[in-house]
Design goal:
Distance between the termini: 31 Å
Oligomer: single chain
Number of strands: 5
Radius of gyration: 14 Å
Shape: globular
Order of helices and strands: HEEEHHEE
């Protein structure tokens, strides 16, 4: 855990969150400023800054695959059957505002393209 990381603090239950899924490796919770009717963040409990850090880790394929499976579970639990979006912003120019790897599950409305 990184002591000044808000997502590490949420994973450690030091900061409350509206948790929708949790297991040994990830935690998923509702975004405080939702951009869609369903907006859930999936966060690895182990601190890593972004996708580049995930790829550099020894467990990257296992964790990446697990996150994809959790995204499907979250979408099913949230009943967003007509479609949903999975987004991971990387770096400042990519829109990443918290330097801890996280994935946004967005749904409950028609998603437009381009997104931003």
């Amino acid at each position: 855990m990184t002591t000044d990381c808000i997502f590490c603090k949420i994973a450690a239950k030091e900061i409350p969150a509206n948790i929708v899924y949790e297991d040994d490796t990830v935690i998923a919770f509702r975004d405080l400023t939702p951009q869609a009717p369903v907006h859930v963040l999936i966060v690895p409990k182990k601190h890593m800054e972004n996708i580049a850090a995930l790829v550099a880790s020894d467990d990257d394929e296992k964790l990446a695959g697990h996150i994809m499976k959790v995204a499907v579970k979250v979408a099913e639990a949230e009943n967003i059957k007509n479609g949903w979006r999975l987004v991971a912003n990387t770096g400042e120019d990519g829109g990443q505002t918290v330097p801890h790897l996280h994935f946004h599950v967005l749904g409950g409305r028609k998603m437009l393209w381009p997104p931003g």
